[in-house]
Design a protein that fits this description.
343 residues; Rossmann fold; 13 helices; disordered N terminus; transcription regulation; HTH_LacI; transcription
């Protein structure tokens, strides 16, 4: 004999309203995050949701609100960097948590090739996401203009050169962080201070180089182009940059590298050339990624507050989606002293 099993009916908004002792409209306003609901009513509705086991019907909610409940995390770098560069993984983890706290879904997208860019624009223009968190934008990337034309709400990690007035952003104080790194090296008595820059089509690359130059100028030291080599944030470019500097100027006594990955790669190159760190050459990086504390010696570096940046990006994007005016936020950095350049 087959037992008679009755399936339990899925709780509805009306069930929640009855349990909470409020109207259907009040429950709807609470679920949609409206402002004109009393704190007491919000607590009653949330308690009733817990007791009844009510869950949102996302499809119905999307039809009613015109929103998907999804946010794209869009990386404009080759996909291998998502796993190789610790900054991207920290940022992704922080964004995922901030979106989860707001009951929003994360969609990871990568657009570094023309084919990926075309697929990305087609998807984003189709209303599949409510907004885009843009990571590592490069000036001159045709994707930027296409995103703006698609009228998709956007917040970028770092200001987007050429789109400062149209794309909201959250940035670290790249200029101030770089300047503090060079001032630290100057205070230690270094005078032949080199830099390995980030890409010069990114906000971080441009302003970390500017901070380096301004710190030297303020100290009365002429900026020597021979002490500047360009990298792309990667270890490979850091190692190549260090070799170039030693070939040009063997008496270099300090290097400010615009990322920890590049800074870490200078260490084995200096050892190969018989140079002691920090005795002969001091090294300062930028990021304070997990890598910085594991090198030998551990890296003095500028802390890039990615956890706060990820939270601010999500908060700002919800404001942009709600129709507020685009704006830019700058988050302060701090210098973390370790053995590669002690105080």
């Amino acid at each position: 004999m087959i037992p008679n099993v009755q399936s339990r009916k899925r709780p509805t908004i009306r069930d929640v309203a009855r349990e909470a002792g409020v109207s259907y409209a009040t429950v709807s306003r609470v679920l949609n995050g409206r402002d004109w609901v009393s704190p007491e009513a919000v607590r009653a509705v949330n308690d009733a949701i817990t007791r009844t086991g009510y869950t949102t019907n996302q499809h119905a909610r999307s039809l009613a609100t015109g929103r998907s409940g999804s946010i794209a995390f869009l990386l404009t770098e080759p996909q291998h960097l998502l796993f190789e560069d610790p900054n991207f993984s920290v940022l992704l983890r922080g964004v995922a948590q901030a979106l989860s706290d707001r009951e929003l879904t994360l969609i990871l997208m990568i657009a570094s090739t023309p084919e990926e860019r075309n697929r990305t624009i087609t998807f984003l223009s189709g209303g599949h996401v409510d907004g885009v968190l843009l990571v590592s934008p490069h000036s001159g990337d045709p994707l930027l203009k296409q995103l703006v034309q698609a009228e998709v709400p956007i917040v970028a990690c770092g200001q987007v050169l050429g789109f400062e007035d149209t794309i909201s952003s959250v940035s670290a104080d790249d200029w101030g962080g770089a300047r503090s790194a060079v001032e630290h090296l100057l205070a230690a008595g270094c005078r032949r201070i080199a830099t390995i820059t980030g890409p010069q089509d990114t906000f971080g690359g441009v302003f970390r180089l500017r901070g380096y130059k301004d710190a030297l100028t303020a100290a009365g030291i002429e900026v020597d182009p021979a002490l500047i080599v360009h990298g792309d944030w990667s270890r490979e470019s850091g190692a190549a940059g260090m070799r170039t500097l030693l070939d040009r100027l063997p008496d270099v006594d300090a290097v400010f590298a615009a990322s920890d990955a590049m800074a870490s790669a200078t260490l084995p190159v200096l050892r190969e050339h018989g140079r002691d760190v920090p005795g002969d050459v001091r090294i300062v990086g930028f990021d304070d990624s997990g890598l910085a504390a594991t090198t030998e010696p551990p890296l003095t570096t500028v802390r890039h507050p990615l956890e706060r940046i990820s939270e601010e990006m999500v908060r700002l994007l919800t404001d942009v989606i709600a129709g507020r005016t685009p704006l830019s936020i700058t988050v302060p950095t701090s210098l973390v002293i370790r053995s590669s350049s002690p105080a």
